[in-house]
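Record 1 of the preview.
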Amino acid sequence: MKKETRVGVGEPISGWVVETGQPLFVEDVETDHTFLSIKKSNISRGTLISVPLKAKDKLLGVINVSKSVPNSFSKKDFDLYKNLANQASIAIENARLYKYAVTDEMTKLYNHRYFQQRLDEELLRADRYENQVSLIMLDVDHFKKFNDTYGHPEGDRVLKTVSKLLESNVREIDIVARYGGEEFVVICPEKDSGGALAPANRIRTAIEGFDFRINSVHVPITISLGVASYPDQARNKSELVTRADTALYYSKENGRNRATRFNSDMNIEAVLQKKKAK
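->
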C-alpha cells in the first residue's frame, strides 16, 4: 500500500496519516506535541484536520483542512470531517469499481457490455429528439497474420495503439469501445452515415500514417471500417449493428484500408452466411 501512495515533498502531515492510517486533529500547531514531532520546521500558526480516505482498508488519499487561527476547529468539526471522508471514500471506491466494470482491461476503452448499454440509450435519444445516430465498426486488417508473424505481445501493442488513435480522432460526445478481439466500435450521436464517414476516414488515415515499429523497423497497420445509421438505414439496434458490420465486410472484401457506408444494394444475408461459414 505504501508503494502505491504518493505524498508530495514537504507534506509530512499527510505522510504521517498515510503511514498510520489514522486521522489527526491539531487544535494549535505551535503547541501540539504530536504535530511538532511530525513537522519540525516551517511551522505557521493555526489549526489542522487531516483525515485519511479509506475504503475496505484500502487507502485512497488524504483530506487536509486548515485555518491560520488556532482553535478554529472543534471536536464536532473533526467528527464531521471524518464522516465526510467516509462518505467520500465510498463514493470514490464505487466510481472506481464502476469504471473497472465498464472498461476493457487491456485497451482502457469501454467494453462490449457498456457499448450495448450506451447504444440503447443513444437510440432512445435519437427517437426522442427525432435525430440520427451512426455506428462505425472497424477491425485491424490481417491481424491474425500479424500475431502469427510478430507474436501476441506485439499484437496487444497494436490494439493499444489503435485504441489511443481512435480516442484522439473522434468528438468528446462519441463513444469508443472495444467490440471484441481486434474489432472496435464508435457510436456517433447526431450524425447520419454520410456525416460519420468523415471521422471514419480520419481514424483510418491516422492509423495508416502511424509509425508503428518493431525492433526499429516500421510495420504498417491499417484498418477497415463500416458505417451505418439509425433510423434511415436501420429500424432497431440489431439492424444497425448488422448493417455496419455488413459495410465493414464490404470494405474488407474490396481491398481493405477503407471506410464503406452501408447501402441497400448490399446483400446482408450473403455476408452473414459467409461470416458464419468462416
